[in-house]
Amino acid sequence: MNLKEQEKFIKECMKKNYLFISPSIIRGGEMLIYDNSTLKLYNNMDTNTKEFANKEIFKARYDDDNESKFNLYLIFCGDFDNLKYCDGEFIDFIICNKEKIVGVYKHVKSFERRDFFLGFAQSEIIYKYGFLYLNLEILLEEFKNNNIEFKVDTSEDIYNYGINVDPTSTRFVIRYKEKKEVTTENNQQLKKK
């Protein structure tokens, strides 16, 4: 993308007034779309969301400890005026505005190993990340329809898992809620969610 195209993208994003939302930071002017491949991902957001949700649902059901976790950056596609109604819990704001929120999932696309000081055993692994744009409303609906219990964790405890964890990310904790069979007096089996 050349400089002129880049400036056009930035202007369009500023017009839409994308906001970056996290438990600790709310700021304006964040750039969502910055190249053609990103635009393609964003345009296919609904399809990508369903595919991503299906993978997470499968993982959640067949994981040994029945627990799957991933981080999402949240971009609120509303106006600053909407934020004045955000006087409750952060989770309430997300649930009430989920149709206006884009989830950005960061994943490792590839990595390369770089060796420094030839002749010595010192090396560094450089990770290259890709970003997937997800429709938060569809994502949460998919989990709900498949009896997947989800939680938006905004507590500070989640940032103590390791170095270089981005403190602006919101952690979604996805757990599979297994259906239990209940037998009635007439020996009829009922499925309990």
3D structure, described in words:
By secondary structure, the chain is α+β, with helices and mostly antiparallel strands. The protein has one domain. The chain is 30% helix and 34% strand. The strands form two sheets. Strands 1, 2, 3, 4, 5, 6 and 7 form a seven-stranded antiparallel sheet that branches. Strand 4 and strand 5 form a beta hairpin. The longest helix is centred in the N-terminal third of the chain and has 18 residues. The chain starts with a helix and ends with a strand. About 3% of the residues have low confidence.
* Major β-sheet annotation: 7 strands, antiparallel
Low-confidence stretches: 158-163
Helix/strand-derived category reads alpha+beta
What is the mean predicted local confidence, pLDDT? 75
Radius of gyration: 20 Å
Q: What form results from the Cα inertia axes?
A: globular
**Whole-number total of structural domains:** 1
Features of this protein?
34% strand, 7-stranded antiparallel beta sheet, single chain, 5 helices, 193 residues, alpha+beta, two-stranded antiparallel sheet
Question: What is the fold's blueprint, element by element?
Answer:
Layout: H1 3-16, E1 19-21, E2 26-28, H2 36-43, H3 45-62, E3 67-76, H4 90-96, E4 101-115, E5 123-135, H5 136-145, E6 148-153, E7 170-176, E8 180-183, E9 189-192
Antiparallel strand pairs: 1-2, 1-3, 3-4, 3-7, 4-5, 6-7, 8-9
Helix pairs in contact: 3-5
